[in-house]
Design brief:
298 residues; alpha/beta; Rossmann fold; four-stranded parallel sheet; 9 strands; binds 6-O-phosphono-beta-D-fructofuranose; EC 2.6.1.16; isomerase activity
């Protein structure tokens, strides 16, 4: 079994641990009313998008999500939350340097004593969820569980759904699809982006991702018999879209009722399985590294 498959399967236990650790980390996370910029790269950027949508919807205050390289941190923020598994990603470190002494910052990372933690005012370390694989699976989802718990969500159903997500049979028509489009709405748009990235990273397979209401505005042109459309959560399948997808002949993955984060776990499993079918080493995808460290970036 690959490290990636092991790490995917360990998510139910990791999620429970993340919930249990909330009291230890709560004070270092964004407080209600703070204006927050959440930054990250790749997977961590997409988790930033999901968390930002959830935090605003929960009424905790303005929350913007940015790719670390594009973050307009000259704006008025009370806190920067940097999501970074490795704690070494160059663009994240640069962003933390830019706000040092001016905006309070928190690094949420998997590695104790890393560069991001040294630059940030506060650190939240989820070392139990660190990964050997290049592609991130259990760290970002455990991080999301911690953040959702901190927003006051009751996660008991999500924790049960995690058990289902790691054992349930995968959709054969998705595994056979030459192209998969993930849809999201609100906080699940970031999850859709991450699901699509996961399949690209692990299997070099053609995926796309859109906010559900944007799908009719052109992207549906890609839908065709054999290809798959996978909304993450019921809100990601707005009224009438099922009929429009059916008309293209594409396979629609109907929302399962599982928590959307558990749906993401199923997408991770699809990514790993596709990689295996294609004979790829899912633990070390070509051209990708655990973290992007730019030697001569200034
Ligand atoms: O969360 P970190 O450690 O900053 O790393 C982000 C990196 O993680 C990845 O998901 C690893 O493939 C990439 O998207 C990105 O380069």
């Amino acid at each position: 079994m690959s490290h990636t498959a092991d790490e995917i399967a360990s998510q139910p236990a990791c999620w429970r641990q993340a919930v249990d650790l909330l009291p230890r980390h709560a004070a270092a996370l964004p407080q209600p009313g703070e204006r927050v910029a959440v930054i990250g790269c790749g997977t961590s950027w997409f988790m930033a998008q999901s968390y930002a949508a959830l935090r605003e919807a929960a009424g905790h205050g303005r929350t913007d999500a940015f790719a670390a390289s594009e973050a307009p941190l000259d704006r008025e923020y009370d806190r920067v939350l940097a999501l970074t598994r490795s704690g070494t990603t160059t663009e994240v470190l640069h962003a933390l340097e830019r706000v040092r002494g001016r905006i309070r910052s928190t690094a949420l990372t998997a590695v104790p004593d890393g560069p991001a933690g040294a630059l940030a005012d506060d650190s939240v370390v989820l070392d139990f969820a660190d990964e050997r694989s290049v592609v991130q699976t259990r760290f970002p989802t455990s991080q999301m569980i911690l953040l959702r718990a901190h927003l006051g969500e009751d996660l008991s159903a999500a924790l049960r759904d995690a058990d289902t997500a790691v054992t349930e049979e995968l959709d054969e028509r998705v595994l056979a699809a030459p192209q998969i489009t993930f849809l999201g709405a609100g906080w699940t748009y970031g999850l859709a982006q991450e699901a699509a990235l996961k399949v690209r990273e692990a299997a070099a397979w053609w995926t796309e991702s859109y906010p559900a209401m944007e799908y009719r505005h052109g992207p549906i042109g890609i839908a065709a018999p054999g290809r798959a459309v996978w909304p993450l959560g019921a809100a990601a399948l707005p009224a009438g879209l099922d009929g429009q997808i059916a008309a293209t002949g594409a396979h629609l993955v109907r929302p399962s009722g599982l928590d959307p984060l558990a749906e993401l776990v199923k997408a991770q499993r699809v990514a790993a399985e596709l990689a295996a079918t294609l004979g790829r080493d899912v633990d070390s995808p070509p051209h990708l590294t655990r973290s992007v460290v730019l030697e001569d970036a200034s």
